[in-house]
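Cross-posting from the chemistry board since nobody answered there.

I work mostly on the small-molecule side, so proteins are not my area. We synthesized zinc ion and want a rough idea of how it might sit in this target. Sequence and SMILES are below. Is it possible to get a predicted 3D structure of the two together?
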Amino acid sequence: MNLFNLKSNEEPQTYIVKGKQLLCHHCSNDMFVLKYHTIHEAGSLINQPASCFICTECTHMHWFQATE
Ligand SMILES: [Zn+2]
């Protein structure tokens, strides 16, 4: 999966990242909503694209830095 091309998705669904089913690190749920963000690093003029998968069960947030 190329995280860079993902769009925000409020509809809960399962995701596979780098060939592995994404499971919540806290509750093992497999359903997430996706928020696509730009991270503004302090002291840097470069904004980093990032994907945030939010667990629909416990709301734990899983961040991935988007890369080509
Ligand atoms: Zn969870």
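Reply from a structural biologist on the board:
Welcome over. Reading the output above for you: The chain is about 0% helix and 45% strand. The pocket of zinc ion is lined by residues 24, 26-27, 29, 55, 57-58, 60 (CB under 6 Å). Happy to explain the token format if needed.
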